[in-house]
Amino acid sequence: MNDHSGGIRLEINGPVANLIHFRQTGPEVVRGAWTRAGQRASASLAALPQTTVAVLSGSAYGGGLELALHCDFRIAASHVEIGLPETTLGTTAGYSVGETSSLLNNPSWRGRR
């Protein structure tokens, strides 16, 4: 972060699921709650007036990749692995990534703003 970053930094490391909560409530409740929270986070990120940059320095699977796709720019180290593992199970990504990924067909150095 620097003086021009607007003071916002989002960092996601390691597993984010609370497995105890998952076991107590069941997969359907948790899946719905995670999806709604991810959709809200993605919409909020996309609506920020500041230019957003996702810096990928590790793996970006599932929700981490989906959040990165909602940023204006994505910068990744050469060793970064990305993917949507949920698609191997026959499900779709949950944070409206289908709508967002269509924006990547016409990359621009200026971003969308």
* Alpha carbon gyration radius: 15 Å
Total count of domains: 1
Q: Regarding quaternary structure, how should these chains be classified?
A: single chain
- Briefly, what CATH class? Alpha Beta
Please state the structural category. Answer: alpha/beta
- Write the element-wise H/E pattern from the N-terminal end onward: HHEEHEEH
Poorly predicted segments = 1-5, 14-19, 109-113
Strand content: 5-15%
Q: Which superfamily, in CATH terms, is the homologous superfamily?
A: 2-enoyl-CoA Hydratase, Chain A, domain 1
Main sheet makeup:
2 strands, parallel
How far the N terminus sits from the C terminus, by CA atoms, comes to 20 Å
Mean pLDDT level: 68
Total number of β-strand segments?
4
From the spread of the alpha carbons, the general shape counts as flat
Strand order of the largest sheet: 1-3
Percent of residues in helices: 25-40%
